[in-house]
Protein 1
Amino acid sequence: MVSLAMIDYGFDSVLQSSPGLVPLFSQFLPSHQKSDQNFPALEGTPVEESQRPRSALVVDDVSDVTDMLSVLLTHAGYDVTCASTAPEALARAREQRFDVIISDIGMPEMNGYELAEALRSLPGYDSVPLVAVTGYSMFDDRTRSLTAGFNEHVTKPIDPRAFLDLIEQL
């Protein structure tokens, strides 16, 4: 079970992963790094595209992972939606266009490679950044991710700052 200490949406030094799973983070995001970015959205008031929070879909069958990535991305100013299965992620992607999608590879029913291929076939998703965040780190796993349609393949544990930098560059 994950133990996560958060202060003002930042990570403190307490973070444990579930037994038998690869830890998600390799270091921690200090709480003093909270985003000062505000996203005004008064009802009936048009909001400039640059003022809207970017939307992210996080897909993983391990809720601890989706929870932690959700906190990290929310802290960075993203509007985050989570899905625990690839079919659920596809349903959400059909309902809403996301600015970035982060997915695990090893999931039951439909794996991340199949999800990436299916997402790329949806209208409007041919250029949406897809990032694999996975424990798969064999020599051909990155190539397989890129071939399936992912833009990046990040292996766990991740460095939160480097991960956010990567997402912002896509």
Protein 2
Amino acid sequence: MQNGNNDDLFSISPNGSFEVSHSLDREKNSLYIITVTAVDSGNYTDRHRFFNINRDKLHIYGIVSFKGLPSLTGTLTFVRFQNSSDFPRLNVEIVHFSLSEDEPVGTLVAVISAASSRAEPISFYLASGNFEDVFLVEQTSGAVLLEKPLDYENRKDFPLLVEARDAGSPPFSSFAEVYLNISDVNDNAPQFTQGEYQCNVFENSPPSIFCDVLAVDADSDIYGMVVYRITEGNSEDIFSVDPENGLLSTTSSLDREHIAEFNLTIEAAELENPQNKDTTTVVVTVLDKNDNPPHFTQVFYIEVTEDIPPGHTVSQITTSDDDTGANTLTYSIVDENEDLPFYIDLTTGFITVVLPLDREEHDHYVFKVVVNDSAWSVSTDVTVTILDVNDNKPEFSHAFYNVVFPETRDEEVLVLQVIATDADVGKNAEILYLVEPSNVEFWVNSSTGEIYTKHRVILKVLAKNAGVITEMNTDEALVHINVINTNDAPIFSSTRYLANISEDSSIGTSVVKVSALDQDSFSDWSRFFFSIASGNTELSFTIDASSGVVSVNSRLDRELCSIYHLTITATDNGSPPATGTTDVIVTIVDVNDNAPMLISTLAEVKENQPQGTIAARLNASDPDSPPNQGPFTYKHIHCIQ
């Protein structure tokens, strides 16, 4: 207000409410003309503090303005005064000065009544203070009712201004203030500020606070007090939470290599009503420290062929580290042998050949590889086995062999063993022996030669590696063989003779005839005689020395000996004598020359036994063979008293 309010009888609020500040006297002044100014934009020349930064706090201030045009607007307000008795007279009956926020809609809050001597009926309105239209006043009855649910957390009081308006023209109004307090109820559960918290803690750190969680309960006083606890993910009690302020701590040092991450469930419950609660997840990441040495991923056994050229990479030494992050590893070989033909790259661990290899001189190498990181040093043994290649030819132990060999009619008789050696190993050292040129009288296998001949002969034997013969992988030796005549043993026409003869045959009966042949060229060496060498039990048989006829020599008894195994020899007159052998198997055929015999001849029976009682059961045996034994016929001859 710029003028017209010299006695400060009126006041106006920033929201435009025009009010009387002091008592008025109509008889003294019945009309006031007041100029009211409304400003819709701030003064940009004003100095405002936007920032205030010191060691303790940071204050930031902001001004929101609307640059309206024009910036100033003026209006005149006319205030006319009527007789005070012309305004409605109000009466307020408060039913509830304080309302619980869970009061049901429709609750009667107050009853406004009014009377007017000027013009009735009176209508009632809520002029101000009814934020979000929570309350309702009935126009005719003046009953103030709860229209919408209350929320203490949204608004804690309502300064209602009630208007009573008469029916005149213009209408006159009177106002009354109804101040209502809202009381809190426990209608809110705690809520965490985050659905998930991400927290970090270094391994091997001593027990300490590393994170905090916050849950807010919109209720007031004791209804808003929250208690924290860990409900899941803390099976080993590694973590604890302060029940009052939500500070998370470790109870012992952690090992990232054992468990790298924990998922904790934190509960915030009301102290007054633990059923009102909320939960959140805390993901605890254990940060790494270099507390583990690198370790080799395997035992290193390397195989390299001896013909691999220098500069060739044969393997890579690999390591792993339970720690994370970039821990630089360096590799080196620790070996006192200056002639070691290998080199390892400092950073990659690749092992490279630097000198020629020869398996025949050195078939394996064992050396130590050391790996270092920023804090640890470990080592391992590396074994390199040199594999053979076929770089050596066979060599005979002699360049010339001379052998005198007696003639023989046996097959595959060893004449001579020629030996060649090869400095290589495995397949590369396998030697094949060949007769060159090929000869039908002789053959030789991979290590020996069996010779059959009647003539004097000289052989050339080759020893070569397995595979195609070349000048580089063969060697040769000459074998001189002189075959001399020897006494050959007589050879029977059969290696086994079978014969059957009855046991009642008379002495001199022919059983079988054997025959033999001696192929010696000397007539004296080709003559021979027969004899029984073994198996002639009780001299049961005899053989004619010249004809080879085997005859019965004594009485035969099948029950004493049923089969004879005779060894027959043919011995020549050579020097020394040579003997051939054969087997004669003679089976004795049974005749019925034995009577049956009772096995049991004594039986006992009790007296007074009824007729038909079995007194004894007789058994008999016969040493003859079927069909000359059983079944038997039993006959009662007489009874001896």
Protein 3
Amino acid sequence: MEDSTGPVPALTFHALRRAFKTSIAERLIPEAQWTEHAKALVRKLTHNAHVDSGLVAWIIRK
């Protein structure tokens, strides 16, 4: 994943995944809604309108 400032560090990917896992557990979000929830979370935390589908797949994997 890249933005206008360059590549995003691997640590950021792991932080996004942890934030996602915490969010779905706390909010009891059903698995059918995980993709859209992950996209919204990435947009919010990265301030980037484009969300890479590979990143979303990695975030929501079990």
